[in-house]
Amino acid sequence: MRGAEATVLAYWAACEARDWDTFGGLLADDVVYDLPQTRELIQGRAANLQFNREYPGDWHVTVTRAVGDGRRAATWTAFTVDGTPVPATTFFDLDGSGRIARITEFWPEPYDPPVGREHLVQRY
Amino acid sequence: MRGAEATVLAYWAACEARDWDTFGGLLADDVVYDLPQTRELIQGRAANLQFNREYPGDWHVTVTRAVGDGRRAATWTAFTVDGTPVPATTFFDLDGSGRIARITEFWPEPYDPPVGREHLVQRY
Asked: What ipTM was predicted for this assembly?
């Protein structure tokens, strides 16, 4: 059984390669994909495979950071969707057999910096 | 030297307790706090202490998930700001002495679910 970090790196590599057999093999039968920002749940391996296979646009993903320990892992990924960079952050829970049982994913969007902290901040 | 997960749990506990001595002791002198959504950087321990001490509103933080390995860690935190729940996701890099050298933080906001995937999704 590979470690949690290796599992989530394999998950993203399979996504990018559209290698859905490998992707599906990393997921628990009853995997739950949770998107807290939209309050959406996608439940089960088949629905998750279909969601990813059908996801529209010319999207690509590379992993900026991955960290895993035991049955938990997190990644910060750099997606591009039709050429636009979009970061995502994802928290994974693995089951006892090392399959991904829960995926909680966030898609943070740009916003204007709050006023009043300019004295402490450099912009880039 | 404590592990990365323990360090970031101590970071959030010190934040919530407004224990700025402990908080400052967890940070490298040249710590960099990076907010990619607003493209803001806050550099150095003193500026980071001031930023957190002065942060407006009645804010509280609890850790939903933490994972650490070696010099890397990630957390998913549940903030409330004046009673409004606000999640954050944070990636930490520690230096060789176990202090926090880089903090990259995301503040994902709610958005409307994209159309066309209703057949795969349950809302909550």
From this structure: 0.96
